[in-house]
Design a protein that fits this description.
Length: 294
């Protein structure tokens, strides 16, 4: 397969090497950088370097966009008019769902299959073995191509933009956990308690992640007021240790919001306890209006 790569930074270079190893041809690279290092990289692929999309795109079977997310829609709009209708456009960027859908709409006008491709992890750790999640009219073709290159990939039902939305939802969890880990372990290290902390966190290792986070949601509605007091004590401990509670400040605001919601609901029903079905769906339905911007 002849492939054109638009954007040849860390992501583009990683996958270009995987595609070459699988026997495919990198026919061309489109890149704003035109310096000697980029020229040498592109030459190592046996490809031609271009500064802008153009008629040369009509000679390839697959166009992969690996630019910055904010530029993805504009790049797609520039490139898609040059593609053949039997070619495939795969957007590997972290563009917003709205931009991804706008690019897919342009692809539809030109009759070109379009795939929203989300890289579900850090390629610095797994390289081209990082799982891909894809949606859109070209999703099945991307999965077939990726798996033939020994790259794990999965298509989901739905429209372009759904894959990147799932990636960003995952980022709320992973980046939130990363931030909590940094704040917590810095404090534990400073207090000389990091190894002991690992011991008392052992119960978390024994619970599947989805079960664990569902249990948080179900119990949050019941115990937010009591847990708010504990969050404030934990925050005070960080301050006493001379540390900034950046993450805990946000945690405190969230627990305070839920606590206010519980108090308002109880006041509206004459002080009676808040009663909700003990399901994740029911408790998320109650929490969602609290989270919506007023």
């Amino acid at each position: 397969m002849k492939i054109a790569l638009i954007g040849c930074g860390e992501v583009g270079h990683c996958y270009a090497q995987a595609w070459l190893a699988a026997g495919h041809e990198i026919a061309a690279v489109c890149e704003l950088r035109q310096d000697a290092d980029m020229q040498a990289r592109v030459q190592s692929y046996g490809a031609r370097l271009h500064a802008t999309p153009g008629p040369w795109l009509a000679h390839v079977d697959l166009v992969v966009s690996a630019v910055f997310g904010y530029a993805a829609q504009a790049v797609a709009a520039q490139a898609l008019p040059y593609l053949r209708s039997d070619a495939l456009f795969a957007d590997f960027t972290t563009a917003s769902a709205a931009d991804m859908r706008a690019a897919a709409a342009v692809a539809a006008i030109h009759g070109v299959p379009f795939a929203d491709v989300a890289i579900m992890g850090a390629i610095a750790l797994l390289g081209a073995r990082t799982p891909l999640l894809t949606a859109g009219t070209g999703a099945a073709a991307v999965v077939e191509f990726a798996q033939a290159c020994d790259i794990p990939a999965q298509a989901i039902e739905g429209q372009a933009g759904d894959a990147v939305q799932l990636k960003l939802l995952r980022s709320i969890m992973t980046k939130g956990m990363e931030s909590l880990a940094v704040e917590c372990l810095v404090a534990a290290e400073k207090l000389g308690l990091r190894n002991a902390l690992y011991d008392v966190l052992g119960d978390i290792d024994r619970t599947p992640l989805t079960t664990f986070i569902d249990s948080f949601v179900r119990s949050h509605v019941l115990h937010a007021p009591r847990r708010l007091a504990e969050v404030r004590e934990a925050r005070e401990q960080l301050v006493d240790a001379g540390l900034q509670p950046l993450v805990l400040d946000g945690v405190e605001r969230l627990f305070a919001r839920t606590t206010q919601g519980i108090n308002d609901a109880r006041a509206a029903q004459g002080g009676a306890p808040l009663e909700l079905p003990d399901t994740v769906q029911a408790r998320l339905a109650w929490l969602t209006p609290l989270a919506e911007e007023k």
